[in-house]
Design goal:
Layout (H helix, E strand, L loop, with lengths): L4 H9 L7 E5 L3 H16 L9 E5 L2 H4 L2 H8 L9 E7 L4 H10 L6 E6 L7 H8 L3 E5 L7 H10 L7 H13 L2 H14 L9 H7 L4 H13 L6 H10 L4 H19 L5 H4 L9 H34 L7 H17 L2
Parallel strand pairs: 1-4, 1-5, 2-3, 3-4
Helix pairs in contact: 4-5, 5-6, 11-12, 11-13, 11-16, 12-16, 13-15, 13-16, 15-16
């Protein structure tokens, strides 16, 4: 049977121990692995490995020994409790062994859990699981995690006392990070808050979230918007060392100053305009953007956007001979000086 993404989320949390098996497939190996970990933990409990109730085997091993899977499924466990055989990274070369195990499966046998990469609808493995009355097939796609999924990850890590605005910030973090990085960030956050019963804050998230090239880019843009011209050069050198090019920096600056302009030009003032931003901003970043928008004003921000547009056109010009990063650095310094003007 084929499970929809919504049905799959509920099944991963509470799998049926009496079913024949489950196929999890998708292009993103990390997303597939995280779902497989979740379902095995829910199906077998935390002591499955120690009690030898879980058998692991690479899908490639089934090509040379097709009977390996069926023997493991039929084997009698020494410890009581549900059992499972996990076949990792299965391909079509393992199809005959998997189909034979599904056909010969009987109540009391170990459940068959299979993971695979992206499978076409014509895949024998996929068709076998989708057509089996007591087995499930789930496709994992690169969709952002749902609110329920984020809440489950937090609950699994023991995180409590999460206010609404902080939950929104965590949901945004889940969208911006890869599944593996997000899981590691939540684990780090749970260790950071261990023994601390106070509410989770935006500052806690900022302390644990990974610092990326984008974070370094934000540092440069904040320095420019706050008129600290002397700090621009070293920060741009650091970005350049990380592989950031002039066009990327210019695009990031235009995005930042458009955000400031959207706030400053709101008829109700910058404080009202910042509340209309999508995606919304929170915590210290919100305060900083509001302060910058109020300090610049709509008129000066129009001038700043003109400078950045001219710089972007110069960078893309066929006759451009000056180093791109030098052009961008000059524009950043002009903006920083403009921020200090009255």
């Amino acid at each position: 049977m084929k499970l929809s993404p919504r049905e799959a989320e509920g099944y991963f949390a509470k799998p049926d121990a009496d079913k024949t098996g489950l196929l999890i497939y998708g292009a993103d190996a990390m997303r597939v692995a995280l779902k497989r970990q979740q379902v095995l933990a829910a199906l077998l409990g935390p002591q499955a490995e120690e009690e030898m109730r879980l058998t692991r085997m690479p899908g490639g091993d089934l090509r040379g020994d097709p009977a390996l899977l069926l023997d493991a499924v039929k084997a009698v466990g020494f410890f009581p409790g549900p059992r499972a055989v996990f076949v990792e990274d299965a391909t079509e070369t393992a199809a005959s062994a998997i189909l034979a195990a599904l056909e010969d499966w009987a109540p009391g046998d170990a459940q068959i859990i299979v993971t695979a990469g992206q499978l076409k609808p014509s895949s024998k493995i996929r068709k076998a699981f989708e057509g089996h009355p007591a087995a499930y097939a789930v496709g994992i796609y690169d969709d952002p995690p749902s609110r329920a999924e984020v809440e489950r990850v937090l609950a699994d890590s023991g995180m409590k006392n999460v206010p609404r605005d902080v939950m929104s910030a965590i949901s945004e973090l889940a969208v911006s990070l890869s599944p593996g990085d997000f899981a590691q960030t939540i684990e780090k956050l749970s260790l950071y808050k261990r023994g601390d019963s106070t509410d989770l804050t935006i500052e806690d998230i900022e302390a644990c979230a990974p610092r990326s090239t984008e974070a370094a880019l934000d540092d440069v843009l904040n320095v420019v918007a706050e008129g600290r011209a002397g700090e621009i050069g070293p920060l741009i050198r650091r970005l350049q060392a990380q592989g950031t090019n002039g066009v990327t920096l210019c695009i990031g600056a235009m995005r930042h100053f458009r955000t400031l302009y959207a706030c400053a030009s709101d008829p109700g003032g910058a404080a009202q305009g910042i509340g209309k931003l999508r995606p919304p901003v929170y915590g210290k970043r919100r305060d900083r953007i509001l302060r910058q928008a109020q300090g610049w004003g709509a008129a000066k921000l129009q001038t700043a956007l003109t400078v950045l547009t001219d710089t972007d056109l110069a960078l893309r010009s066929a006759g451009q001979t000056a180093p791109a990063m030098a052009l961008v650095e000059r524009a950043m310094i002009r903006l920083a000086m403009l921020a200090r003007s009255r």
